[in-house]
Amino acid sequence: MTGQETALAGVFPQATDAQWRVLVERALKGASFETLVSKSYDGLSIEPIYARAAGSPFPVLRKNPGRWAILARVDVPNVEAANRLALQDLDGGADGLHLVFAGSIGAYGGGLVGDDDDAIAHALANVRLDYGIPLTLDSSPRALGAAQALMRFVDRQHIEPSLTRVSMGFDPLGAQARHGFAAEPWTQVSRSFARDVKAAADAGFVYATAVADARVVHSAGGTESQELAFALSSALAYLRALADAGVDLDSARGLIAFRFCADADELLGVAKFRAARRLWARVEEACGLSPKPALVFAETGWRMMSRRDPWNNILRGTLAAFSAAIGGADAVSVLPFTQALGAPDEFARRLARDTQLVLQDESHIDAVDDPTSGAGGFEALTDALCERAWGLFQQIEADGGLPKALETGVFQAGVAEAAALRAKNVARAKDKLIGANQFPDIHEGALDVLAPYDAAAETIEPPTGARKSAPLAPRRLAEPFERLREESDVRLAELGDRPKIFLANLGPVAAFTARANFAKNFFEAGGVEAVFGPETESTTELVDAYRECGAKLACLCSSDRIYGDSAETAALALKGAGAGLYLAGRPGELEERLRHAGVTEFIYAGCDMHDALRRALSEAK
């Protein structure tokens, strides 16, 4: 330090909110400030800027400080292949394993199919559980014997269970929500649950034997507050069941972990994981306990995954893993980028591991506990989520608890409402999915997977006498657009080409380029290949180019000024040549004239993109 150095605060005085707003109003040019405020699906306002949080925020700490555990999924049906991949993952930097069984919340069309001693022994051959690596089960009604088989496996290996970090993953309410049935009333299910958890704990398995798993809500399209309320109510139901079985509350809470999805929304993702810890601490205090950090597992979200241009899933997974880690997750599992296509191969699994290794070893984001503490935006969103989720949690409890809310379908109805709004926004491209409703690659090449996605593996028939309710089925946001692309693929396989639309570009390049590129991305998101027309002033040349390309549809593309001068004439000529006509942009006062000239559809940002593409695909065939 020298005497010539000046404190930065003196050189750069702190700007005030009033000064910032003056600049914002100037940039908005008369538009409302509210245009900068977005809303979450919970209705929470997300402001463009926040002041530093006042006071001393509640610290959000991991149960295990420092590095989070990198978990690799073991989800290939063939146990020998599953074991080979698991060992590769551990050798390649994974800290532990996530055993996923077919029919579980996180199976996603795959999963282990055997739950007997032989299957578990083969899947975990040469895995050193005595080293204390974390191992968690994704339980399933199809694999009811998996936990007991795993306990016997540990016993045969002469490993002291208390030295392991094995989570049995007992989660009957999660399974009920996922599949829409309970084999018995909750009074009986809760006793069976408590018996199984207590037996495992008595044997020495005390590392999160039960899991309150909110992934089922996220995958079905629910909101952050719905995920948090579901997890809280589920954990409280498990806590009560264990207390009724004679387990003291302090021991019981240590047997319960949480599992949440993380997606590419960093702001809400970080806030959700932070809110989960705060809310559980509030439940602990209400039970007369001093709060202790809970064990929180994270998995990157299934609903954000796409089959088309799946390379974008790498970016989504990175953002999600970052959010979970910053938010304080103890263990994170990244879905490999080809997960939506089927069982990922070695390359996809390596990228899933390396995503987290880079965040830890190069970015060092594990070096600070609760790094967003005091940041105004994150603190405000965490507080707002806590308030909204706590209110929903109280409502569930006042109405009889989560088991009753699932049985009556009240909770599922709330999730369905949020999912419907989410689907509407995806259909209109308000929620943008790169590779699906934005910037599609219609000529993308196929990627390899070890086994194709199997939708049948996700369904489970309820047993006779089961108490049925509405299931929370997983849905990926990109699915509606992918189905349109699949129709186009069928045409390509059968006839050798895709449905086409001719982009009738009017005027000079500068006039039509923006809307022509918009139209290309718009139509190719539905599998309709766009063919650019020539730059010409001649209507005859335009019609000749249309006939030559073999398309049944045409879309006029240009500026508003040129639409006023030339669109009507061009539309009449193209209609005379047999074209079904679209126009890129809002027609304004020209709509009646253009429709009279033959234009049947107008495409623009914010229109129902999926509905328009569905009709275009049908007309273009």
Automatic annotation (TrEMBL):
Cofactor needs = adenosylcob(III)alamin
Asked if Isomerase is a keyword of the record, the answer is yes
Q: Which Gene3D superfamilies does this chain map to? A: Cobalamin-binding domain, Methylmalonyl-CoA mutase
Q: Tell me which residues make up the Methylmalonyl-CoA mutase alpha/beta chain catalytic domain.
A: 101-451
InterPro entries this protein is in?
A: Cbl-dep_enz_cat, Cobalamin-bd_sf, MeMalonylCoA_mutase_a/b_cat
> Per its record, what are the GO molecular function terms?
cobalamin binding; intramolecular transferase activity; metal ion binding
Q: Pfam families this protein is in? A: MM_CoA_mutase
**Keyword field:** Cobalamin, Cobalt, Isomerase
Q: Which CDD domains match?
A: MM_CoA_mutase_beta (cd03677)
On the tree of life, the source organism's domain of life is Bacteria
Q: Which family does it belong to?
A: Belongs to the methylmalonyl-CoA mutase family.
Q: What is this protein called?
A: Methylmalonyl-CoA mutase
Which species? Methylocystis hirsuta
